Amino acid sequence: MDKKKLTIEFWEYASENELAENDQELLKRAKQITDTAYAPYSQFYVGAALRLKNGKIITGNNQENVAYPSGLCAERVAIYAAGAHYPEVPIEAMAITCKSKTFHVNEPLSPCGACRQAIAEYEMRYKTNIKIILAGETGKIRVVNSISDLLPFMFKAEELKKV
Predict the structure, then answer these.
(1) Using CB atoms within 10 A of its CB, is residue 47 exposed (0-12), middle (13-18) or buried (19+)?
(2) Which of 75, 92, 123, 158 is catalytic?
(3) What is the topology classification, in CATH, of domain 11-151?
(4) What is the pLDDT of residue 69?
């Protein structure tokens, strides 16, 4: 047996003002879209904004349902909208943020496992990394250059192929 160690690389910024201008805009759009999230049960509002290679910004927010598994996370709402409307255009970057009516979020939000796998699918589909910008309501901001930093043992399409 060999013991292995896994490390990731990420950047941490004290505020959004330290981000590049186009990433500041992306995070701003993610924050704005939290206002129209449908979260009557959790009171936890998530916004995602992604920038396509053609410069277009697509947004999404969480959509809850009384039958909890029927809802959808902000990240997948945005990524699937991009796939539906711009199927040939790769995603360059995605900003994800959140807020709550019941507590203050001062740490960066990280996507759930299902969203991580959906983002991974788009990285594999276009054979390009997606920069991910993570933020809470306030506080530091974390940036990774690929979903593989958040999902190192992702399920890949090659694993479905028969020998």
Answers:
(1) buried
(2) 75
(3) Cytidine Deaminase; domain 2 (3.40.140)
(4) 86
